[in-house]
């Protein structure tokens, strides 16, 4: 598959090079490899010219074919991840988008809109419909519905996985139109389409499986820009409305729409300032502003923010300024110029100042608000200072220089050239717009790595403009050299006119038509060298981008791959292993406490409720989780119980070199926790200012929950040869705290390579082992073995050894029968041979007491005559809810000649006493009987279980045909308590 | 209540007296009964009961009982008479007549399930009953540490539970008896290497019940499929798509305390042998496009390879399935029609589809089993045939690629499918006109034709009102 892709790239590369002849055909500049060959074959100038002329005829076909190939390339280069791994959703946010999309396709749009998701942000929940940008989900669902409608069913997962690559193909086409609209040069358009189809920073956000808003938003962004420039160029309401519709889609798809709603007003303002404002812009902006703002409000998540928030403020102001400008202009036109030139500028200045003041006032007074992310854009240090959650995300870090070259490669060189041609060389609205877009996005991309995505289209368009302008010059000279055999100097002087005459029909005055006759042409040799360089540059760019797509950006990050020494590939699938374990083997309503990064994955893959997730809307909640992780075990346990968490999940890479684990992120947890809970001190986790986990680590660090959960029993494994046990391969240090035990947490599961570790938060019973009513009677004695059988059998069984007062040992078998009606038939069988019974009722439920009599009857009916029965009132700990009076029960017991006791299983009061006393009684009765029975047995030559008791004491078991003495009834009452 | 019952029974007695009065009193007692439990099968326990009874006359009904608490566990009952290949007809009496109960039991007999066995004429007053039970071997203790050895507890009645008195009875347990931890002691008990034997017990009264227990070490897992769904989609273009969904549960002992990754080493076969680490099966060699995935994608731990005879397929769940844990997955493949789809000899348009009934991982019991066969669009007169009875047959419509009418499907449900009982093929026969396979290509061609036609027409028609543009 890789090979195939490689071929595709080559094909495309050559096609792109071909693009020059055809596109240049329009501009009547011809160059390049294939035509050159043809020319060589033809060997004659006339033939050559004919070839160029005939090629020109095919230019539109070439254009379409090349554009189609570029879109296919854009798609193909993004599916490395599917080929290398599988069709799977990547990373974090895509899992949420995928989950919501599935919900949308299953439940429909209205349900989706009203969806209250209780699986996230426990116990708060989240209103999904009102807190997301639904564009991507609706897009996928529509595709699926449409395909289903055509009776071509597709798996929604595959729609989601391949959505971004498909949109990348569409983006190439939009970029072509955008650039062409801006420069009126198809060759620039094709270059930009090629660039954007494989620009690494865009690939990183749109590989197959990366199902995120940006995947469709970049397409919407560029389409909006294209339609905007088109609207400005034509002044048509139709195109303005189209632009607005595209903007609406962008609003629905991505929070980055605020980029559009700011850049377009800035552009309008810019044209006013440089005095290039025209009524075309007036029409375009009026339509865009009015309709766009109204439409943006249709998205619930945006709502009235489209009016109130500071992100939109610029659009309102510019709309006002523009109108004032037009009014003034109108007045000016009707008055003497000299007077009103001054007046206009004065008024304009005052108005601007006034609006500026209002803007500042509104912002300062807080009537409108900037969101944290936007403020971070305006003040890059803001997040670090005030919003650690935003700062903690790696993609919100400032961009480093290397990532520019990494993501844009040679485009970087041509961006300045593009700027030159856009802002300084025959400026049109389109070029001006691109220039402004380039400047702004350059700034934004510096602030956050994430916004490298925004500069990518600008870089592609600018570089394409710069490149195509240079190439035009070079190709002109080369074409001249090929069509003419005259010497260079002659070419210089003579061929200009012909050139101009050729150009005239095809050019529309945008090009340098008047200039070239006087300008000197680049010498052929120089042009050839420059061309060669460009060929190298282009192929290098293609190679670099493909390499980046294949190696750097195609990892799904939930599935990891590494190579063994022999070159074979190992799939590390720990995340899915652990998440699937959660899905299959925890209670459906289990709540998982983990750092917010994994929230979306746990709900998406594990189907379990999480406390916090990647939608970081509640800082306090996240801080509480951070605090839990940073607290000592006792404290953390209290917090975990307070949060009602059942499991704690941590990511630990110390065994398998997985560096992005929770220990690495731990400081952010502390910082975020400290932001809300002052008792957490970040400094406590450092030792002498250094964050470390080895023996030198601070005591707070060594005892915090995160440390313990990550390194629990880690000291028992050797991770690297020649290193001591407990050697953390990520931090290259031996852990400093070994051999500790966990008291309140229990390892429930750890994935194969230890990347995901899941701990169960022990129920409170762990603190007080005699807790939990059901367990009480059976498990308050540590030596009891209990077996659980299926409910259909309705009986539980346990064996227990009791020491009698006289020093004898009795082994009793305890049958815990079901009290529920439907088990009556079964339990009858177990009465046979029972020698004692505990009838348990619930003192808080009089019904259970009332049914005691019935059970008693049944006992007497089926069980041995000599059965010892004890009445037990349970749950005395709930004495406030008491319904059955103690006296009442005692009286009943006396009447029926039963022993009576009240117990509390919960606090374990009297339970042992109840058991001991009934055993004593049974023993007395039974030992009398045994003598009689043994004689019988001898007759029947039945010898039973002598090996159990070894004669130490009397086997309660050895009487009766049933060979176990069943002390039943224990649960009888108990179950009843549950069912009634 | 009892009053009403007896009143009803009197009534019934009167009504039924004429034709059924003679059926009860003939069998005097069981002469000799031999019961044998095979505990070494995975997923199930097999109980073979050889019964010899005495009756003064030729009888044709024998009443066999099973304790009601085992009703859920019992998955099959089959009877044979020596020298006769036909199985005996055995009917479960869902609502046994009250007088029947009264006749055989003194007490309330609702704790027993009655089976009416019809004996052929001239039988030798001897026959054999084979029963299969599920979920009867219980891990005891029910939770163990990862390094511990697993032990199972099996309990049943020492005596043959019968409505008739029994003269002599023997009892055997076949399993790895050297692993025994404990068994109910008895003077008659005899333990061999692979066998534990009780009896003979003499003169057992009717409805005698006494618990007998076998407690033994068992290292392996106890896998059981709680649900299996098999979907087969037939295309007359030459491909059959088979998809199977499995829901796997391990009945073995649960983990006591923590799951220690340190304690459990994946590569060490001696650690926690009671956990299901992987399952293997051989698929037909000619299958193509094998996949295995679950809710979140490909199960990357599994693999398959094709050798000369089979495709060896090893599914390794993402995590080891310890006792009381579960997992699920889907797997599937394509297979050519020529091995499974045949035309009926006399009738060209009638097809027979023949396929194995049981799931691919056929070692273990499937508790809820569903087969859905999806036939091509236009198939009619669909019939299902199998060597055994099934619980439920439903027909429906299925829509997949380019189906506008819907493909007829037939869904067969059966509980408790096991290879001892159901390792056989089933057939689905249906009528199908061969020309029907061209419907879908025609759809596609028509679609493109319309597209191109529209494009051509659009290019030719000028809807503009502007005169200049027309030129």
From TrEMBL, chain A:
Pfam family, one: Ras
GO MF term (any one): GTPase activity
Catalytic reactions on record: a di-trans,poly-cis-dolichyl diphosphooligosaccharide + L-asparaginyl-[protein] = N(4)-(oligosaccharide-(1->4)-N-acetyl-beta-D-glucosaminyl-(1->4)-N-acetyl-beta-D-glucosaminyl)-L-asparaginyl-[protein] + a di-trans,poly-cis-dolichyl diphosphate + H(+)
Composition skew (Polar residues), residue ranges: 9-27
Membrane topology: Multi-pass membrane protein; Lipid-anchor
Compartments where located: Endomembrane system; Membrane
Residue intervals of the Oligosaccharyl transferase STT3 N-terminal domain: 61-463
Protein family membership: Belongs to the STT3 family. Belongs to the small GTPase superfamily. Rab family.
Protein name per its UniProtKB record: dolichyl-diphosphooligosaccharide--protein glycotransferase
Source species of the chain: Stylonychia lemnae
Automatic annotation (TrEMBL), chain B:
Localization terms from the record: Endoplasmic reticulum membrane
Keywords: Endoplasmic reticulum, Membrane, Signal, Transferase, Transmembrane, Transmembrane helix
Record's GO cellular component terms: oligosaccharyltransferase complex
Highest taxon listed in the record's lineage: Eukaryota
UniProt topology in membrane: Single-pass type I membrane protein
Transmembrane spans: 442-461
The UniProt record lists the keyword Signal: yes
Involved pathway(s): Protein modification; protein glycosylation
Gene Ontology molecular function, alphabetical: transferase activity
Example of a GO biological process term: protein N-linked glycosylation via asparagine
Subunit structure: Component of the oligosaccharyltransferase (OST) complex.
Family membership noted in the UniProt record: Belongs to the OST1 family.
Entry function: Subunit of the oligosaccharyl transferase (OST) complex that catalyzes the initial transfer of a defined glycan (Glc(3)Man(9)GlcNAc(2) in eukaryotes) from the lipid carrier dolichol-pyrophosphate to an asparagine residue within an Asn-X-Ser/Thr consensus motif in nascent polypeptide chains, the first step in protein N-glycosylation. N-glycosylation occurs cotranslationally and the complex associates with the Sec61 complex at the channel-forming translocon complex that mediates protein translocation across the endoplasmic reticulum (ER). All subunits are required for a maximal enzyme activity.
PANTHER family reported for this sequence: DOLICHYL-DIPHOSPHOOLIGOSACCHARIDE--PROTEIN GLYCOSYLTRANSFERASE SUBUNIT 1, RIBOPHORIN I
Protein name: Dolichyl-diphosphooligosaccharide--protein glycosyltransferase subunit 1
């Amino acid at each position: 598959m890789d090979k195939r892709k490689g071929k595709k790239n080559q094909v495309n590369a050559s096609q792109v090079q071909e693009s020059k002849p055809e596109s240049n055909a329009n501009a009547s500049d011809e160059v390049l490899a294939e035509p050159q060959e043809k020319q060589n074959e033809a060997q004659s100038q006339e033939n050559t010219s004919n070839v160029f002329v005939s090629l020109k005829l095919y230019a539109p076909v070439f254009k379409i074919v090349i554009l189609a190939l570029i879109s296919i390339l854009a798609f193909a280069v993004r599916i490395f991840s599917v080929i290398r791994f599988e069709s799977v959703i990547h990373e974090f946010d895509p899992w949420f988008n995928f989950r919501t999309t599935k919900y949308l396709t299953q439940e429909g749009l209205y349900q989706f809109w009203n969806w209250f998701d209780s699986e996230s942000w426990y116990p708060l929940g989240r209103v999904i419909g009102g807190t997301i940008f639904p564009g991507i989900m609706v897009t996928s669902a529509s595709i699926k519905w449409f395909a289903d409608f055509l009776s071509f069913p597709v798996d929604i997962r595959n729609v989601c996985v391949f959505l971004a690559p498909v949109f990348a193909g569409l983006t190439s086409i939009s970029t072509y139109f955008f650039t062409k609209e801006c420069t009126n040069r198809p060759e620039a358009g094709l270059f930009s389409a090629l660039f954007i189809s494989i620009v690494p920073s865009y690939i990183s956000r749109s590989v197959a499986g990366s199902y995120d808003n940006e995947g469709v938003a970049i397409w919407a962004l560029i389409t909006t820009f294209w339609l905007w420039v088109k609207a400005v160029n034509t002044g048509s309401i139709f195109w303005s409305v189209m632009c607005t519709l595209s903007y609406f889609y962008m609003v629905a798809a991505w929070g980055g729409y605020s980029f559009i709603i700011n850049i377009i007003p800035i552009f309008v303002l810019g044209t006013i300032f440089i005095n290039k404002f025209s009524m075309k812009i007036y029409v375009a902006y009026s339509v865009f502003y009015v309709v766009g703002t109204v439409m943006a409000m249709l998205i619930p998540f945006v709502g009235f923010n489209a009016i109130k928030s500071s992100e939109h403020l610029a659009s309102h102001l510019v709309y006002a300024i523009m109108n004032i400008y037009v009014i003034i202009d109108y007045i000016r036109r009707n008055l003497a110029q000299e007077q009103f030139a001054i007046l206009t500028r004065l008024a304009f200045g005052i108005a601007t100042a006034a609006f500026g003041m209002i803007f500042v006032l509104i912002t300062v007074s807080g009537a409108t608000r900037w969101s944290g992310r936007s403020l971070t854009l305006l003040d890059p240090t803001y997040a670090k200072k005030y919003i650690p959650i935003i700062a903690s995300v790696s993609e919100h870090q400032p961009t480093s220089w290397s990532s520019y070259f990494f993501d844009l490669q040679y485009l970087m060189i041509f961006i300045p050239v593009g700027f030159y041609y856009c802002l300084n060389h025959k400026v049109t609205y389109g070029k001006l717009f691109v220039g402004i877009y380039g400047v702004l996005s350059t700034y934004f991309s510096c602030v956050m790595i994430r916004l490298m995505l925004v500069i990518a289209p600008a870089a592609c368009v600018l570089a394409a403009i710069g490149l195509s302008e240079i190439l035009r010059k070079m190709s002109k000279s080369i074409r001249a050299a090929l069509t003419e055999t005259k010497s260079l100097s002659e070419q210089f002087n003579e061929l200009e006119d012909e050139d101009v005459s050729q150009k005239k029909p095809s050019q529309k005055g945008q090009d340098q038509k008047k200039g070239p006759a006087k300008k000197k042409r680049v010498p052929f040799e120089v042009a050839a060298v420059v061309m060669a360089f460009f060929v190298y540059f282009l192929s290098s760019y293609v190679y670099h981008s493909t390499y980046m797509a294949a190696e750097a950006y195609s990892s799904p990050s939930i599935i990891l791959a590494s190579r063994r020494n022999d070159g074979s590939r190992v799939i590390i699938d720990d995340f899915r292993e652990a998440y699937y374990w959660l899905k299959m083997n925890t209670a459906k309503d289990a709540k998982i406490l983990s750092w917010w990064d994994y929230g979306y994955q746990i709900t998406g893959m594990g189907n379990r409720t999480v406390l916090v997730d990647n939608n970081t809307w509640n800082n306090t909640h996240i801080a509480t989780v951070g605090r839990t992780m940073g607290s000592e075990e006792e404290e953390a346990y209290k917090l975990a119980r307070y949060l009602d968490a059942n499991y704690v999940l941590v990511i630990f890479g110390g065994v398998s070199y997985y560096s992005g684990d929770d220990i690495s992120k731990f400081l952010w947890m502390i910082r975020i926790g400290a932001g809300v809970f002052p008792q957490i001190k970040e400094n406590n986790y450092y030792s002498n200012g250094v964050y470390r986990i080895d023996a030198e680590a601070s005591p707070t660090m060594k005892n915090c929950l995160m440390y313990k959960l990550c390194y629990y029993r880690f000291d028992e494994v050797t991770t690297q040869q020649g290193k001591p046990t407990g050697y953390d391969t990520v931090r290259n240090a031996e852990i400093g705290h070994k051999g500790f035990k966990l008291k309140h947490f229990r390892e429930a599961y750890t994935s194969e390579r230890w990347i995901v570790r899941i701990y169960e938060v022990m129920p409170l019973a762990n603190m007080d082992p005699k807790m939990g009513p059901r367990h009480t009677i059976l498990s308050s004695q540590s030596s009891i073995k209990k077996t659980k059988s299926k409910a259909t059998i309705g009986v539980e069984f346990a064996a227990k050894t009791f020491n009698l007062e006289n020093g004898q040992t009795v082994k009793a078998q305890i049958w815990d029968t079901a009290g529920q009606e439907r088990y009556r038939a079964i339990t009858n069988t177990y009465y046979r041979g029972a020698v004692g019974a505990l009838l348990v009722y619930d003192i808080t439920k009089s019904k259970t007491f009332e049914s005691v009599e019935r059970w008693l009857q049944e006992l007497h009916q089926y069980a041995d005559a000599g059965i010892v029965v004890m009445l037990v009132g349970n749950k005395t700990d709930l004495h406030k809810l008491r319904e059955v009076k103690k006296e009442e029960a005692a009286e009943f017991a006396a009447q029926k000649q039963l022993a009576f006791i009240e117990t509390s299983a919960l606090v374990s009061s009297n339970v042992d006493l109840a058991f001991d006393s009934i055993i004593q009684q049974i023993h007395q009765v039974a030992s009398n009987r045994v003598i009689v029975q043994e004689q019988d047995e001898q007759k029947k030559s039945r010898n039973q279980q002598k090996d159990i008791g070894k004669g130490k004491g009397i086997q309660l078991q050895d009487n009766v045909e049933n060979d176990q003495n069943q002390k039943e009834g224990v649960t009888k009452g108990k179950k009843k308590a549950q069912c009634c | 209540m009892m009053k009403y019952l007896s009143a009803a029974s009197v009534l019934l007695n009167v009504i039924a007296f004429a034709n059924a009065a003679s059926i009860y009193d003939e069998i005097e007692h069981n002469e000799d009964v031999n019961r044998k439990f095979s505990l070494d099968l995975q997923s199930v326990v097999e109980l073979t009961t050889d019964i010899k009874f005495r009756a003064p006359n030729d009888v044709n009904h024998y009443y066999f009982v099973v304790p009601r608490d085992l009703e859920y566990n019992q998955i099959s009952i089959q009877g044979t008479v020596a020298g006769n290949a036909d199985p005996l007809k055995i009917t479960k009496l869902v609502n046994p007549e009250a007088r029947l109960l009264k006749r055989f039991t003194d007490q309330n007999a609702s704790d027993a399930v009655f089976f009416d066995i019809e004996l052929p004429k001239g039988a030798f007053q001897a026959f054999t009953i084979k029963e299969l039970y599920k979920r009867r071997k219980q891990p005891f203790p029910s939770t163990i540490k990862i390094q511990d050895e697993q032990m199972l507890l099996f309990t049943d009645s020492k005596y043959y539970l019968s409505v008739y008195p029994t003269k002599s009875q023997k009892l055997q347990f076949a399993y790895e008896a050297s692993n025994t931890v404990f068994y109910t002691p008895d003077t008659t008990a005899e333990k061999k290497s692979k066998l534990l034997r009780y009896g003979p017990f003499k003169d057992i009264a009717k409805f005698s019940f006494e618990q007998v227990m076998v407690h033994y070490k068992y290292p392996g897992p106890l896998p059981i499929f709680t649900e299996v769904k098999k979907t087969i989609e037939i295309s007359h273009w030459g491909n059959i798509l088979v998809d199977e969904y499995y829901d796997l549960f391990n009945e073995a002992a649960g983990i006591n305390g923590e799951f220690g990754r340190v304690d459990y080493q994946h590569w060490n076969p001696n650690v926690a042998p009671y956990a299901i680490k992987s399952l293997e099966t051989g698929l037909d060699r000619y299958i193509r496009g094998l996949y295995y995935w679950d809710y979140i994608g490909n199960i990357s731990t599994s693999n398959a390879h094709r050798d000369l005879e089979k495709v060896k397929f090893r599914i390794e769940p993402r995590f080891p399935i310890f006792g009381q844990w579960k997992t699920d997955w889907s797997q599937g493949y394509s297979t050519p029609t020529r091995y499974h789809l045949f035309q009926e000899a006399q009738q060209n348009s009638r097809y027979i589809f023949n396929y194995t009934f049981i799931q691919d991982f056929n070692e273990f019991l499937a508790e809820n089993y569903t087969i859905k066969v999806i036939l091509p669009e236009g198939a009619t007169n669909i019939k299902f045939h199998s060597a055994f009875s099934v619980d439920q047959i439903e027909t429906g419509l299925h829509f997949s690629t380019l189906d506008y009418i819907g493909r007829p499907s037939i869904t067969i449900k059966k509980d408790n499918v096991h290879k001892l009982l159901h390792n056989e093929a089933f057939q689905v026969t249906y009528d199908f006109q061969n020309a029907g396979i061209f419907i879908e290509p025609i759809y596609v061609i028509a679609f493109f034709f319309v597209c191109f036609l529209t494009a051509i027409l659009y290019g030719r028609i000028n809807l503009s009102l502007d005169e200049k543009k027309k030129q």
